[in-house]
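Hi W., the adenosine-5'-diphosphate complex you wanted:
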Amino acid sequence: MKMKIHTRLVVWAALGVLAVVSVVSFAAYRIARSGLKEEVFSHLQSVAQARAHHVQTFLESQKSLISLTARDIGLVEGLRRLRDGAEDKATIVRDLNSELKGEIDPSQHLYEVLLLDHHGEVLASTNPDDIGLDKSADAYFVGANDGPYIKDAHHSETTGKGSIVLSAAVVDSASGELLGVVAARHDMVVLNEILTDRSGLGQTGETYLINKYGFMITPSRFLNDTFLKLKVDTEIARDCLADMAAMRREQLPVEREHPAIVFADYRGKSVLGVHNHVSEMQWGVLAEIDASEAFAPVARLRTALLLFAGLSAASAMGMSYFIARRISQPIHELHVGAERIGAGELNNRLDIRTGDEIEQLAHEFNRMAARLSESRASLERKVAERTADLTREIAERKQAEEELERLNAELNRSNRDLQDFTYTVSHDLQEPLRKIHAFGQFLVEDCGDHVPEEGREHLRHIQDAAVRMKDLIRHLLTLARVGTRGGEIEPAAAGQVIQEVLQDMSEQVRECGAAVSLPDRLPTVLADAVQLGQVFQNLIANALKFRSPDRRPEVAIGARVEGDQAVFSVTDNGIGIEERFLERIFGVFQRLHLREEYEGAGVGLALCKKIVLRHGGRIWAESELGKGSTFHFILRTVPQPEEKKP
Ligand code: ADP
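Structure:
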C-alpha cells in the first residue's frame, strides 16, 4: 500500500502515543481500582466490626441486666415464699407483678418482663395476658438453667413482633435450688437501629444480620418484610456461615485469600461485601455496598483516562502532522523537482531553506540540474552543428550523386554511341576493305606481268595489310557484339559449358600434348552460356599458346564457391607474364609479343573482360615470369533454395 511519508509519520505517532498512553492509563486504572477496592473493603470491614461489636455490647448489657433482675431480692424472696407455700399467695404475686413493672425499659424496647415459676408457668408478667401460660417447653425457660440465655430472633407468640428474649434463672442462694426464671422480651427494633445506621455507607451501603440458618433478621435497605423470610444465599453469607460453623466446632475459620469479595447479593446486584459475626448468637453481620457506587470514583477516573488517551493521541497526531509536514514538504518539493527535471524542465530550481540535510540535498540537486542543463545545452549545440554539417554533407553528396548519375548516363550514352560507332564503322569498313583486297587481287592477277617486281612486292604488302585489317575488324565486331548481341543471362552449368569447349578444342589439346584437369564438381552460375564458353575457350587457348618450350603444358581449371559467388581459375605452367603487364593485357589489341613469335590479335582477354563485366563480375591475372600464370574470374551463382535440416 502506498502511503505518503507524512501520513505514515502521523499514523505511527498516533499509534505509538495511543499505545503508551493506553498502557499507562490501564495500569493507573488497575492500581486505582485495586487501591479503592482495598479502601472500600477495609471501610466495610470496620463498619461490620463496629456493628457486630455494638450488637454484642447490647446483648452483654442486656444479659447483665437480666442477671441482675434474677438476683433481685424482691423476686427471689417472693418466689421462695411461694415455693414454701405461703398463704398470701395472691399478695405475693401482685407484688411480683408490680416488681416486674419497674423492670420495663422502653428505651431498650423491652416491652415485656415475665416471671416463671420453677415449673415453667408464667407467675407474673407485665402483659397480664401471659399470666398462667405454661412455658416449661420454651427455650428461654429451658436455656435459663445454664445462666443468662438469649432466645434467638423470632416472631413473638403474643405480639407477633420480631423479638428476642433474654432469660435468667432465679436461684435460692442458700440451697442453690431453682426458684423460677425471669425473662425479658425485647423488640428487634434496638438491633434494627444498630444495623440500619448507614452513616458512611453512601447511597447503597447496608449492614444486616442473618441468623445461623442464613435468614435475614434485620431490615434490608431495599426490600420490605424480610424478617426471617428472606434467606440470604450469597457467597459472602455462605462464607460467613461456614466460618461460624467452624468456630462452633472450635476450628479455625476457613483461610481465605481475601475476606472481602465482589459478588451478587440477594437482589442479584454486584456488590462489595464483608462479613463479621456475633458469636454469642451465631449471627452473621454482613456489610455490603453496590459495586457501581464503590467504584464510581475509578469509573470517573477511567472516563478521564480515556479522554486523556484520546486527547493525547489527537495532540500527537496534530504535532506529528505538523512535524511531518515540515519534513515531508521539502521532500515533496524535491520529488516534484525531480519529476520536472525528468520531464525536461532543466531550468527548474528548488528553494528549500530548512537548514538541514534536505537543504543540502536541494542544493546538490540544483547543482546537478545546472550541470545537466549545461550539458544539454552543449549537446544541443553539438547536435545542431552536426546536423548542419550532415545536412550540408548530404546536400553535397546528393549533388555529387546527381552529377555522377548525369556523368554515368552521359558515359553510358557515349559508350553506346561508341559501340554503335565501332560496330557501324567496323561493319562499314568491311565493304571497302573487301574491294581493296579484291581489286588488289585483280591487279596482281591481271596486270602482274606489267608491274615491276618492286611494284608487285608493294601490292603484296597491300594485300597482307588488307587481310590483317579484315581480321582486326572482325575481332572488333566480335567485341562490339558482346554488348549488343549478347544472349539471356540465366542459370548455366559451368561443367557442361567447359566440357563442350574442351570438346571443340580437343584437336588443339592433343597437338600440344597438354594435360587439362577439371574438378569433380563445378557450380551452376548465372551467365550467358555462349559467352561463358568464349571466356573459357580464350583462357584455355592462351594457356596452350603461351606454353613453355621446356615442359609439357598443364592446364588446371578450378572453381570454388564463396557465398553467392563462384570464383573460377585457369592455371598454366607456361611462360608467365611480367607483373607490370598484368593489367595492360586486358586492353584491346594489347600484346606482349611479336606476331612472328605468337600469333594473335590481342583481343582475347579484352573480350573475356568485357563478357565478365557484362555479367557484373571481375577478372584478373596472377603470374610469375617463366613459371606460369593463373587467370581468375568471378560470376554470381544461382541462389540455392535453403536446405531443409532433418
Ligand atoms: P593474343 O593472345 O591474341 O595475343 P590476348 O588478348 O589473348 O591476345 O593476350 C594478350 C597478351 O597477353 C598476349 O599477347 C600474351 O602476351 C599475353 N598472354 C595472354 N595469356 C597468356 C598466358 N597464358 N601466358 C603468358 N602470356 C599470356
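The CA atoms of residues 82 and 90 lie 10 Å apart.

W.
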